[in-house]
Amino acid sequence: MITFKEIDRSNYMECISLRIKEEQKGFVADNAQSLVEAKFEEGLYTRAIYSDDTMVGFVLFDYDAEIPGWSMSRFMIGEQYQGQGLGKDAVKQFFKYMKEEMKIQELYISVEVENTVACELYEKIGFHFLKSVEYEFNGVVYKEKQMKIEL
């Protein structure tokens, strides 16, 4: 069963230890970076993703005033837990969490255009393409698909 828990002193090292596959690097920020950003930037929320009692992933979400709306900004499943359907289950449970706990009716994501596996997963789950977005951050140009789902 998929559940979400706040990341705190008792589980942050476990979260930092989760890794993605080599071919996924560049598509997902490192969990340590995400935790630091959430600590020092207002309005970023983090949750550990558990399957039963095992931490299998991480999600960061926030209200993005530029959209405007709630965004699942970062999502990852540890490499050793991929391919078991946990990612799909976790996303669906996250929808339920956002709808019931946060009272959110729609959710946005931005996915790197080249991350075709994630784009296909989100489309299968029910996200709809809105627009392409291109921006520069720290000297790197990002090209993303912005997508939305009604919860």
Descriptive report:
The chain is α+β, with helices and mostly antiparallel strands and 151 residues long. The chain contains four helices and seven strands; from the N terminus they run E-H-H-E-E-E-H-E-H-E-E. The chain has a four-stranded antiparallel beta sheet. A hairpin with a 4-residue loop joins strand 3 (54-64) and strand 4 (69-77). It is globular. The model has no long low-confidence stretch (mean pLDDT 93).
Key words describing this protein structure:
globular, 4 helices, three-stranded antiparallel sheet, alpha+beta, 151 residues
List the helices and strands and how they pair.
Elements: E1 2-5, H1 12-17, H2 31-40, E2 44-51, E3 54-64, E4 69-77, H3 86-101, E5 106-112, H4 116-125, E6 128-137, E7 140-150
Antiparallel strand pairs: 1-2, 2-3, 3-4, 5-7, 6-7
SSE class? alpha+beta
Shape: globular
Instruction: Please provide the count of β strands.
Output: 7
**Beta strand %:** 35-45%
Q: Work out the helicity level.
A: 25-40%
User: Which radius of gyration do the C-alpha atoms yield?
Assistant: 15 Å
- How many helix segments? 4
As residue ranges, the low-confidence spans are none
How would a crystallographer describe the biggest sheet?
4 strands, antiparallel
How would you concisely characterize the structure shown here?
The chain has 151 residues and is of the alpha+beta class.
